[in-house]
Amino acid sequence: MSADLRNRVEQYLSAAFLDREIPSRLSSAMRYSLLAGGKRLRPVLCLSVARACAGERAEELTDAILSFAAGLEMIHTYSLIHDDLPAMDDDDLRRGRPTCHKAFDEATAILAGDALLTDAFGHMLRAAVPADRLLEAVRLTAKASGAQGMAGGQMLDLEGEGKKLSLEELRILNAKKTGALITNACECGALLAGATPQQRYAARCYGSELGIAFQITDDILDVVGDEATVGKEVRHDAESDKATWPSLLGLEKAREQAHLHCNAAEKALEGILHGPDADFLRETARNLVNRTH
Ligand code: GRG
Fold first, then answer.
1. Could you tell me if the CB of 41 is within 6 A of ligand 1?
2. Residue 56 forms part of a structural domain
3. Whose CA is nearest to atom 20 of ligand 1?
4. 83 CB less than 6 Å from ligand 1?
5. What's the pLDDT at 291?
6. Position 256 in a domain
7. Is 91 close to ligand 1, i.e. is its CB under 6 Å away?
8. Which of the four pLDDT bands, split at 50, 70 and 90, describes residue 278?
9. How many domains does the chain have?
10. pLDDT score of 4
11. CA-CA distance, 12 to 70, in Å (whole number)?
12. What is the pLDDT of residues 149-171, one digit of tens each?
């Protein structure tokens, strides 16, 4: 199912930002980064959770909230463009090709990120679900992306460079920078589907455990991965003197932690979400520790 969901997200994104009213350099930069072949993890998680909660209404609901899920990918892509800027992580490679500011220029990359973030909310608001659910999902997404969430996490990340962070500080930083949007994708899937409070809570726990495991594996890939497979520069964390899971715990213990959090993610769904979409969510947690990009 996930391949099909990923294709549907891909199709939606391919049709976005072609409007003639958008200055062509801006739409080129937005589409350059958006259509560079990301895993589409956040929208696929959102759709899968929604489908798992929706039962017989799964197909109908997928169509109804595709624009919302695609909006999450736009926010994610904005964060990658801005994260790669010289003033932030200063990266030359992303998703296997030159970063947005390298392919265009810094000012264009900043604007492409700004426009993706802003337009994301317009796309999310197109979802055809009851207004109270949609407004709550948009509010949660703004919080997960903003000062209390991803942008706040990025601030902690920048401040942490060259400092010795404790494991608890690293956990908080990661929960905001990486975890907030992943957790939000899962919770919003449940919310938009009109799930029970138990299902929504399970989706949130699954997302937050998966988010930590995702960051740990990202840190591990920075140490053991190769640039061609990972699609971005590696050994970057050590160069920028960043606290990471392998730097604090060593590779083996970091791997153990990733396993523990993946198991906890699977467990969060136990007895609450059923069917093929829930199976896919469990598989995603199980396979995460072996990811190569
Ligand atoms: C600039 C506000 C702002 C935030 C930046 C996303 C982010 C915060 C930084 C990216 C740095 C990084 C490597 C984070 C680790 C986890 C992560 C978000 C990896 C990239 O996400 P994937 O693997 O990428 O889902 P694809 O390309 O598959 O979409």
1. yes
2. yes
3. 80
4. yes
5. 77
6. yes
7. no
8. very high
9. 1
10. 95
11. 7
12. 999 999 999 999 989 899 999 99
